[in-house]
Amino acid sequence: MSGNRRTQMRPEEESQRPTPAIGGGCCGFVGETETQMELRHLRYFVAVAEELHFSRAAERLHVAQPAVSEQVRKLEEELGVRLLNRTKREVSLTDEGAVLLSEARRVLQRVDIARLAIHDLRDRGAARLRVGYTPASLPTSVPRALQRLSASIKGLEATLEPGFGLELIAAVRDERLDAAIVSLPAPTAGLRTTELGQERAVAALPVRHRHAIRPAIRLDQMAPERIVVLPREASRPFYDAVLAACRSAALSPSLVETRGTCLEPALLAVASGAGIGLLPQSVTARYSTPGVRFVPLDGEQPAVSTGIVTRRDTVHLPTAAFLRAVLQATTPANIVAHETPLTTAA
């Protein structure tokens, strides 16, 4: 969670400024009094730190907003540090708050794992986690998180189900999926969306193509090539971002759309010379196709956000543990830096 993320805060939250405790640190004792940090304090703090808005955090926790402010204030007094910067318009994490957020997530994940283990023992059944994904939107942090959970939660039955973005979101609403990784923006009203970062486009070229040996290629260098893309239903935000970038580069390419959600047909089409592919950059970490070379794009390029969609009111422990594991696996190195302009769909 970035310490620079900001959003608006109600004026009444300004009055909830903490009075730092005297002495002590983040563990052990504050002055002469032993700390009484509770899991509730950590849960409330994590909710505020992730939402960066007290009212939204209260809605997420299904409690009154003053209760959230009070618990966060107590936690700050307990630790003797300010965790959040509050103004009349915005709230942001302090450096100490950013450190605690990382550790609090880890603590809560271990608690969820412990609860899940007890639940599994009681019911004598394996836990189940159903995760949907669009092949165009699967950051490497997701497989790593699932691997970590499988090693931590005995008997976890995790399944990955590919599909179109809108279908996956509908499956989360209908409780046929516990979570879905999709491109954003998407119609997720009433659901919880956890953003994982930006997904850029990458060019996929036949190995014998004249540009295949370049360290990077600009969109305008693709004219008059045909461009291989996934169908719009596979990832509407990414498809629209590709078209917007082409228009910005004064390109009117002939599009070769493959069928279904799978990326293999698009890569095979590129290898056979059907055109140059414009595909999500995450495919480079998951696919190695003979006859195809991935080349980064230079200059203005398509990009979309990727996120995990879950139900707001879920009490499903594997889902909560999965969200925390993905956030822990999503490091700054996984989020593509905006060194060059990005083009997203309007």
Task: Describe the overall structure.
By secondary structure, this protein is α/β, with parallel strands linked by helices. The chain has 3 domains: 95 residues, Orthogonal Bundle (Arc Repressor Mutant, subunit A), CATH 1.10.10; 106 residues, D-Maltodextrin-Binding Protein, domain 2, CATH 3.40.190.10; 107 residues, 3-Layer(aba) Sandwich (D-Maltodextrin-Binding Protein, domain 2), CATH 3.40.190. The chain contains 11 helices and 15 strands. The strands form 3 sheets. Strands 5, 6, 7, 8, 9, 10, 11, 12, 13, 14 and 15 form an 11-stranded mixed beta sheet that branches. A two-stranded antiparallel ribbon has the order 1-2. The chain has a two-stranded antiparallel sheet with strand order 3-4. The protein starts with 10 loop residues before the first helix and ends with a strand. The N terminus and C terminus are likely disordered.
